[in-house]
Specification:
Blueprint lengths: L13 H6 L10 H35 L11 H16 L4 H19 L5 H9 L13 H7 L25 H12 L4 H12 L2 H8 L2 H15 L3 H23 L9 H20 L8 H28 L1 H6 L5 H14 L2 H15 L7 H18 L4 H14 L5 H10 L13 H6 L21 H7 L3 H6 L6 H16 L7 H14 L5 H23 L27 H17 L14 E6 L4 E6 L1 H9 L5 E3 H8 L3 H13 L3 E5 L2 E4 L7
Family: Belongs to the cullin family.
GO molecular function, one term: ubiquitin protein ligase binding
Organism: Modicella reniformis
């Protein structure tokens, strides 16, 4: 009588749920319909329970009299409650959970719209404001209030369902469950953390103010009735599933690919101002807020939801971790958010495995440029040192990247180029403590900040941590020695010094001094000699010009034993250029008679002023480019083969060099391998 008739409602028919308005995003129709069903069951339950209690009272009255009748010690009301719970479980329609899920999902959506997210500061200011705000009406669910108005004063029953422990969420892993239960079992320490997190987001008074709102009173009434008829456990499972789904949707819809700002705190504000108040109203609809059992149940599910929020947020950022590193340094707020999530959830191993898989698939392959790999490596070092100061994650990632970089011939040159690049700040970062870290031993240290090695560190973590104290040291030790790094730096330094036609090497001097702080002076002596040669060359050129002011040539004079091998391409300079170099050699011989000068005509730079009919160019070009354009002084049109014979340069090399003047708009290719100077742009 109590169960069968209400469950015949069309709401629980399979076809109605699968094809009807239940599939619509706007499913407000389910709120009054579901309430009517629960209310009908509760009314019949309340009447039958009251009859059972009256019968118990009558039995107790007869038992107290002198009647010889013996009555069973089992009260009828208690037997009724047990039989009702059993019958309820048997006769529940298969679609009940689906309908309940739709009801709670719709109610929560309306609750979320009518109670927007507030920050802690906003909520604090609202609590200090006038209490008249408690009288506001939730227009979004007025239809709920109207449909439920006649059922708000249902009978109250016993609270035995509060003793039931909610089932664990199937979406949480065993490790997750262990962490959650560890959080719940430690009442002395972790409960304080839980209480602080909850009450910062919403106080008990705040929840009471929500409960006093007319529309929400109908929802509280329904939750209370479901608890009385034995639906508390099932209701908790459905509501938490709705909240879990909403947390996941919120994270992926609002925070995905938003790496340039801190979003974790915004998400926690949303949880504490929307998710947890709704959970509180559901689990504690009419209970005493000081009841220990109810409070413990609420704290448990609140802790699980907070943990699930951090876990899901961490999963998203772990999935995006490769792209976050690519966007370094703009994505640093996302790294700080991920660091906090990892502290909550212990997802370091998950991050490590996902990151190694991503770099093997997306980075360590022949299609990636070596410079791109090095830049990514540098960003990885910066971010992993934030996420894992122990160095375990960085050590594992570095092993995989180093192993691949050793297979490339241009690795060291790309490393040095990244380090000495003008836009790089690697050389300007602080070097304080590097030498101390390199010489210190983990055992027997007196450092108060010392921490034991992680259990998954491996036997060589101590040395790995010392190597990783400085990014340049990490990059330089890819080959387990600094020799190749020094040789490559010397080669790049030589290229830059030879192109410094104004002899301004302040940048190179500064970089050398910074490198000496990291690697010592012994390995960089040749570089010091190279810089000394540049300074000496500047003095020699000044002395020559003091004697011959019209001298157009200035040279960088290198000490053969200290500079790397200088490779010069074959180039037959025009006669005018040859005469200039011969005059300079003669002047140098007079100034330094004990030394022999060997010129490299294809190296260096030429200050060029090019005058055409309608325009003038001033630029610094390589000698081969100057030689090419000088040929057009003799005639306006040249073939590629004729220029090749004149300059003694291969055709393919010369064709490539010609593209420079074509891009500048000085020369055009009128036919294949036929070139003509453009004197006037308007007539071309």
């Amino acid at each position: 009588y109590i169960l069968i008739d209400p469950f015949q409602h069309q709401l629980f028919k399979k076809d109605y749920i699968s094809a009807g308005p239940a599939q619509s995003e706007s499913a407000e129709w389910v709120i009054p319909a579901f309430y009517n069903v629960i209310d009908a069951i509760h009314k019949r339950f309340a009447v039958s329970r009251e009859l059972a209690r009256l019968f118990d009272d009558r039995l107790r009255t007869l038992s107290a009299s002198d009647s010889p009748l013996e009555f069973s010690s089992l009260e009828v009301s208690s037997r009724f409650l047990m039989d009702f719970a059993a019958e309820l479980a048997i006769r529940l329609p298969p679609s009940f959970d689906q309908v309940a899920h739709l009801y709670f999902k719709t109610t929560f959506r309306q609750f979320e719209v009518s109670h927007p997210t507030q920050t802690f500061e906003d909520r604090h200011s609202n609590n200090m404001a006038d209490s008249s705000g408690q009288n506001r009406v939730d227009k979004a669910i007025n239809c709920t209030d109207q449909a439920h108005h006649s059922y708000r004063d249902g009978a109250k029953g016993d609270d035995r369902d509060q003793q039931q422990r909610p089932r664990r969420r199937r979406t949480l892993t065993p490790q997750t469950e262990r962490n959650v239960m560890d959080l719940l079992d430690d009442d002395d320490t972790d409960d304080e953390l839980v209480e602080r997190m909850f009450h910062e987001g919403h106080s008990a008074a705040g929840a009471e103010s929500l409960a006093k709102e007319g529309p929400m009173q109908s929802y509280l009434d329904l939750c209370h009735k479901m608890g009385e008829i034995g639906f508390a456990s099932r209701m908790t499972d459905v509501v938490t599933r709705v909240l879990y789904d909403r947390v996941e949707a919120k994270i992926f819809n609002s925070f995905k690919k938003r790496w340039d700002m801190a979003t974790l705190d915004k998400g926690k504000d949303w949880v504490t101002s929307t998710i947890l108040p709704f959970l509180r109203l559901t689990l504690l609809p009419k209970k005493d807020q000081g009841d220990f059992t109810a409070k413990k149940r609420y704290k448990m599910w609140s802790s699980r939801l907070l943990f699930y929020f951090h876990k899901t947020f961490g999963d998203l950022r772990i999935e995006e971790f490769f792209n976050i590193i690519v966007e370094c340094p703009d994505s640093k707020p996302a790294i700080l958010d991920l660091q906090e999530c990892i502290e909550w959830t212990g997802q370091r191993e998950q991050l490590q495995k996902a990151f190694l898989t991503a770099i093997n698939k997306r980075l360590l392959h022949p299609g990636a440029e070596t410079t791109d790999i090095i830049e990514f490596y540098i960003s990885t070092i910066k971010y992993l040192r934030i996420l894992d100061p122990s160095g375990v994650m960085l050590d594992r990632a570095a092993r995989a990247i180093n192993r691949y970089l050793r297979t490339r011939d241009d690795t060291m040159r790309a490393i040095v180029s990244c380090i000495v690049d003008d836009s790089s700040d690697l050389l300007t970062t602080s070097t304080e403590g590097i030498q101390a870290n390199a010489e210190a031993d983990d055992e027997g240290t007196d450092d108060e900040s010392w921490m034991p090695e992680p259990k998954n560190a491996g036997p060589d973590l101590s040395s790995a941590r010392r190597r990783m104290a400085d990014i340049i040291s990490v990059l330089g030790n890819i080959y387990d020695t600094n020799v190749r790094f020094m040789e490559e730096f010397q080669t790049i330094l030589a290229d830059r010094l030879l192109k410094a036609i104004d002899f301004n090497v302040d940048r190179e001097v500064r970089q050398l001094e910074l490198l000496k702080l990291r690697f010592g002076e012994a390995d960089l002596q040749h570089c010091e000699v190279m810089l000394a040669d540049v300074a000496e060359s500047k003095r020699i050129n000044a002395n020559i010009r003091s004697v011959r002011p019209e001298m157009p040539v200035s040279a960088t004079i290198a000490s053969r034993c200290y500079w790397p091998d200088i490779e010069s391409e074959t180039l037959e300079l025009p006669e005018a250029f040859k005469r200039m170099l011969e005059e300079y050699s003669a002047a140098f011989q007079i100034l330094k008679p004990a030394k022999k000068l060997n010129l490299f005509p294809s190296l260096g730079m030429v200050e060029l002023e090019l005058e055409l009919q309608d325009r003038t160019f001033q630029m610094n070009v390589e000698p081969i480019h100057a030689s090419i354009i000088y040929l057009f002084e003799e005639q306006d049109m040249w073939t590629l083969s004729a220029m090749s014979a004149k300059l003694q340069v291969a055709n393919d090399v010369l064709e490539q060099k010609m593209q420079f003047w074509i891009r500048e708009g000085v020369v055009r290719e009128i036919e294949r391998f036929y070139y003509q100077v453009i004197e006037n742009v308007s007539s071309s």
